[in-house]
């Protein structure tokens, strides 16, 4: 190589390298803005008192930043996602006692408990589902698919029967849940999913106090007998029932007092959010004890928790791997039970 050629070639290489570096920096900046910029600007302020610091290793996209429904394409696949969203929001219209597709579930909607079509932060949203299922559930002792998890809520929370895996409805629900989870890396925890953390009370949750909380904070919508308020055309509910024959059954997730207390703390009275709760922790625990002490449909689940030592502390049905009573398991105090377990039996 002649000296002159070398002088021409080297600056050329340097320029190319600089260009490549600039392009790389640009890409990184765009990615950062995409994921963190707008989120940081509009994310709700986390309330350390109720939700604690972000979970270790959590993927920092607050759950309230679900993908925009306007981005669902107008293709056949997009229509399926939209139908899935519709089924979550208005389940009873399609599958309830007057359902247009089948009569399989009670008059409730998935959205009654998975608020805003399963997108609201700490209100039981679906953002992490696609990234975490199939997963091992101690309840069944098996690896569970999204379909099986959906069926579980249809049988317990909606006290009915599930649509078959191959049905148009199940395919649409799974498509919507998968669409919601787009961009979330497999196995990552998402901040804002599940429920808020609610410290245990030192005492048992108190149904008598909870009854008074119910009267002042819940009854005006859910009715004096917790029966809810049916829609005028009887196709579902304006305000869903909290107990009685049309409510979730005693095998449902919400029948566990900790789940109900944590849900109610961040979501009820309707309009409350995890960063703007309306109940004290005590009120949430006590009202949950009251609601779950009222009558509701019974479903025998003899095959649940094949390993009883894995039951969550507040699993209200024995047998247990410890000496605590069903009553204490149901209403607390929970800390002594947790302390007595070699491996603390936590939720799920
Ligand atoms: C009465 C309240 C209620 C209703 C109605 C309800 N669910 Fe659920 N669902 C829960 C609770 C509580 C949990 C989590 C607690 C647990 O796992 O025990 C849950 C969990 C789930 C999960 C797993 C979430 C995760 O991150 O692991 C999926 C998926 C789900 N529900 C789908 C549905 C679908 C679909 C419907 C309607 C067909 C529905 N649910 C109706 C209360 C409800
Ligand atoms: C302003 C009316 C209103 C008040 C007050 C209210 N709720 Fe609700 N509640 C709703 C609505 C509406 C839903 C269904 C949300 C949806 O579908 O988007 C709901 C859903 C629920 C659910 C899940 C579905 C079910 O029926 O099991 C529970 C549990 C619940 N509320 C408990 C409570 C408790 C406990 C209180 C009092 C602390 C309370 N709510 C106060 C309107 C209200």
Molecular structure report:
With 348 residues, this protein is mainly alpha-helical. The chain is globular, with a radius of gyration of 24 Å. The longest helix has 33 residues, at 3-35. A two-stranded parallel ribbon has the order 1-4. The protein has 16 helices and six strands. 42% of the residues lie in helices and 4% in strands. The protein has two domains: 58-190, Orthogonal Bundle (Cytochrome Bc1 Complex, Chain D, domain 2); 207-340, Cytochrome Bc1 Complex, Chain D, domain 2, CATH 1.10.760. A hairpin with a 6-residue loop joins strand 5 (229-230) and strand 6.
The ligands found in this model are: heme C
The helix/strand series, from N terminus to C terminus, equals: HHHEHHHHHEEHHEHHEEHHHH
The second-level CATH architecture of the largest domain is Orthogonal Bundle
- Principal-axes geometry comes out as globular
How large is the count of helical segments?
A: 16
Unreliable sequence segments: 31-63
What's the helix and strand layout?
Blueprint (H helix, E strand, L loop, with lengths): L2 H33 L1 H6 L5 H4 L6 E2 L16 H14 L1 H5 L14 H4 L1 H4 L10 H4 L2 E3 L4 E3 L1 H10 L12 H13 L8 E2 L16 H11 L1 H4 L6 E2 L6 E3 L17 H11 L13 H11 L34 H6 L3 H6 L8
Helix pairs in contact: 4-10, 11-14, 13-14
Bound molecules: heme C (2 copies).
The site of one heme C (HEC) has 23 residues, from helix 6, helix 12 and helix 14.
